[in-house]
Amino acid sequence: MVEEKKHVKKSLDEYIPILDLLISKQDRLEILLSLRETDKPLTYSIRGKKSTKTVFISESLQEVIINYCAEVQMKQGDLIEVAIIDFLLNHGYEENVKAILNNV
Asked: Which of these, 24, 34, 40, 100, is most buried using a 10 Å CB contact count?
């Protein structure tokens, strides 16, 4: 019985890093988990005037973007904004992005 408890405790300790990660991302997880499959994808509301930015991407990626946006009834610009924000959040620009998002 004592050995069994030690085994369980050791097993639970292995989950602490992932639990810490989940706790640190709790806000985003709650939003993602609250979406139903039929809901439109999450978009960010950013205050300010919109401007044009031209980028060159492969035609095959462009086709995927067009098809996805048509399927989920989303504007291509919104998809690009979400992709860029998510990229920046995951690559060290969390403070910068939070500052923009908190200006809403």
From this structure: 100
Count of helices and strands (H, E) across the chain: 6, 0
> Given a cut of 90, is residue 66 above it in pLDDT?
yes
Angstrom CA distances, 93 to 1, 3, 13, 102, stand at 49, 46, 31, 14
Q: Nearest Cα to 102, choosing from 31, 45, 24, 34?
A: 45
The answer to pTM > 0.85 is: no
Give one DSSP letter per residue of 65-77, joined into a string. Answer: HHHHHHHHT--HH
CA distance 76 to 70: 9
Task: Extract the runs of DSSP E, i.e. beta strands, from 1-104.
Answer: none
